[in-house]
Amino acid sequence: MSSAVRVHGLWKRFGQQVAVAGIDLDLPAGRFIGLVGPNGAGKTTTLSMVTGLLRPDGGTVEVVGHDVWRDPVEVKARIGVLPEGLRLFERLSGRELLGYTGRLRGLPGAEVDKRATQLLDVLDLAGAQHKLVVDYSTGMRKKIGLAAALLHNPEVLFLDEPFEGVDPVSAQTIRGVLERYTASGATVVFSSHVMELVESLCDWVAVLAAGRIRAHGPLEEVRGSAPSLQKAFLELVGARERDAGSDLDWLGGGPR
Amino acid sequence: MSAPTAVVVRLKLSLLRNGLRQSAGRRAAYVASAVVVLLVAALQLVGLVALRGHAHAASLVVLLVAVLGLGWAVMPLFFPSGDETLDPTRLVMLPLRPRPLVRALLAASLVGIGPLFTALLLAGSVVSVAHGATAYGVGVLGAVLGLLVCVTLARAVAAANIRLLTSRRGRDLAVLSGLVVAVGAQVVNFGAQQLGSSGLGRLDPAADVLRWVPPAAAVGAADSASEGSYGSAAAQLLLTAAALGALLVVWERSLTRLMTAPDGSTFQAAGSGTRERRGSSGLARLLPAGRTGTVMERSLRYVWRDPRTKAAWVTSLAIGLIVPVFNALQGTGSPYFACFAAGMLGIQMYNQFGQDTSAFWMVALSISSTRDAYAELRARALALLVITLPYTALVAVVTTGLLDDWPRLPEVLGLSCALLGAMLATGAWTSARFPYSIPQEGYKNVAPGQAGLACTAIFGGMVAAALLCAPVIAVTIWLNVSAGGDAWTWLLLPAGAAYGATLTCLGLRLAAPRTAARLPEILTAVSRG
């Protein structure tokens, strides 16, 4: 089995805070891969370093056999990215944004326009294609971001929280497009903290907590004997169910 | 201090501290700019104290304070300021009454370099005009009131404009305020010329009016008390206090409205309709293919569509035209002033990636070699030149025409080209080396803690650009003073243009490898807004 992404000894520190503490990962190609972990586990930091948007303090990253930092020409042409918390060029309309991204990536103009039309159609954005992205809702932004990431037909797609704040209808659309994309042999790596979603979409997961990998492998393996990924996850990250009654006895409705 | 006041002041101090904590370079830049400001403040304090007893001291001091007040009024709109660290809209969800909130924010606004500078200037002004114990008493009261008026003025203007700046339509209107700076600069310029031509006595008529306008009235009161006219002094103090009261009311009202009414984003979502546009604009067909055309088209669209970019451009265009043309109209101009347009417009090349905000990641992902970075920077420079070059030529022609000094047109054009080239070169280099964030929310031009960095980049770059132009300036002077040199000044047009083009190419070549090597660092630096 070939790997889409190979990470070795990845480190990142922000001042005193260690965000990513030595990650080793081998993500298989052609799979739908979920990177799960609680908030602050280092998911965004890891994805930023893997995609070349953040310089690691140590370690190596290879995407489809090419080193991200030594061979950016090969890597950047092969990946699509949808980051979380970064803007788009919002003063362009949806269609203009796709035209800009595609041409920046060196695709011929006519091909960009053709692909943009199809993507806008499939993602249900055709009606809003001439509206400025600044006026888009969260779901529409995620969808236009996804379209921009798919435009150059990448081999590996990295999505940071693609379903965060997205309405169920848009989520279903995004899901459909991603399933079709992986069925053709491409790899999707996405991060999320919603276990049900990961469980229903992914066939391979990596669990991240406090900057370290706690478990990784095919979904069934990671889930093990636990009834759901949620339970397995809580065990892995060591979250115990506390007896809430003793601490918050003042909390509750009723007369004051 | 009441509870919210103490909390907000502490919040402001922690924000300042945290902004500085981010990197040693940023801290150094901030400390350096603080030292410069304090040095200037100390020098003017000494100067004002030395002025004590001079016949026209009062007029000068009153005018100075009036200009200072004007500065406070426009500062929150146009200049990177560490004073706006506390955005009232972030406190919306807290159960705070407007009055304690105003008190707390006012106290917090008094913390910083700006208020310290103002306090020193007011103190110096009082020392230079006050004679006798009563006058000093009035002066101290006046200085305190004056400082409060200045700070409140800035706050009230900022609060009134935050609504404008957060609605999309309103932001476009705010562009007009750029003209306020242009006109203000013109007033100062005009005043300085009057002084140069006929001494400090010329200030008296203006000062006679301004000494009744707060915050200058506060210093006027000290002067009146020195002359024994206690009635006037009391009236001037009262006027300042009334102005303070009025400003506080205006500020409190806009704060209340700000915190209770829906903000611009809500209106926008409700009201905007879908406008149909053609697939590709006419503009695109005129631009070159590939990355160059794509980036140029995006840059030019942003000049028109992005309110921040638009405001910066309108200000640059207005000042670049007003300064040389007004001077020419007043008969005090020189055709060389036309170079001002090139300098003002060249500033737009600075902090290119900061103008992208965190959307720079889209650019970063598409740059994988020095050649890509070079193409990106060159396209941005070309987009700038599409507007700048004809505009600079127009300003040069209009200015020389008004002065009827046509023989100087070639050398003015040559100098403008050289300066523009130098600005583009230094702008490209500083864009790669000193990127900083331009916050998109609120009304700041620089993220907290990055103001020093921004100033270093802009002013350092401008000094470097001036130095780079020195050879062309030297040749211009030499041709103008040497016998028979006039016959050859036309050579300065091709020479200046070639020199400017060479500088730009060199600047882009130097900036490209730095950009390509520092993509993640640039992205981090511009993503703080």
Descriptive account of the structure:
Chain A: It is found in: Cell membrane. Chain A: This is ABC transporter ATP-binding protein. Chain A: GO terms for molecular function: ATP binding; ATP hydrolysis activity. Chain A: It is a peripheral membrane protein. Chain A: One of its GO terms (biological process) is response to antibiotic. The complex is a heterodimer of chains A (256) and B (529). By secondary structure, chain A is of the alpha/beta class. Chain A is 37% helix and 25% strand. Chain A has helices spanning 43-50, 72-78, 94-104, 109-122, 138-150, 168-183, 195-201, 219-223, 229-237, 244-247, and strands at residues 3-14, 17-28, 32-36, 58-63, 66-67, 79-82, 156-160, 187-192, 204-209, 212-218. Chain A has a 6-stranded mixed beta sheet with strand order 6-7-8-3-9-10, sandwiched between helices. In chain A, helix 3 (94-104) packs across helix 4. The radius of gyration of chain A is 20 Å and the shape is globular. Chain B is mostly helical and 529 residues long. Chain B contains 23 helices and no strands. Residues 79-84 and 264-280 of chain B have low confidence and may be disordered. The chains are: A alpha/beta (256), B mainly alpha (529).
Question: Main attributes?
Answer:
heterodimer, A: 256 residues, alpha/beta, Rossmann fold, six-stranded mixed sheet, four-stranded antiparallel sheet, 10 strands, globular, B: 529 residues, mainly alpha, ATP-binding (chain A), ABC_transporter_ATP-binding (chain A), nucleotide-binding (chain A), ATP hydrolysis activity (chain A), ATP binding (chain A)
Quickly describe the structure.
Chain A: Its main location: membrane. The complex is a heterodimer of chains A (256) and B (529). In chain A, 37% of the residues lie in helices and 25% in strands.
Task: Give the helix/strand layout.
The complex is a heterodimer of chains A (256) and B (529).
Chain A: E1 3-14, E2 17-28, E3 32-36, H1 43-50, E4 58-63, E5 66-67, H2 72-78, E6 79-82, H3 94-104, H4 109-122, H5 138-150, E7 156-160, H6 168-183, E8 187-192, H7 195-201, E9 204-209, E10 212-218, H8 219-223, H9 229-237, H10 244-247
Parallel strand pairs in A: 3-8, 3-9, 6-7, 7-8
Antiparallel strand pairs in A: 1-2, 1-4, 4-5, 9-10
Helix pairs in contact in A: 3-4
Chain B: H1 3-21, H2 24-50, H3 57-78, H4 98-109, H5 113-129, H6 133-166, H7 168-174, H8 178-198, H9 204-210, H10 216-226, H11 230-260, H12 264-271, H13 282-286, H14 290-305, H15 307-329, H16 339-346, H17 352-356, H18 360-364, H19 370-403, H20 409-433, H21 451-481, H22 492-517, H23 519-526
Helix pairs in contact in B: 1-4, 2-5, 2-21, 3-5, 3-6, 3-8, 3-9, 3-10, 5-6, 5-10, 6-7, 6-10, 6-11, 7-15, 8-15, 10-11, 14-15, 14-19, 15-16, 15-19, 16-19, 16-20, 19-20, 19-22, 20-21, 20-22, 21-22
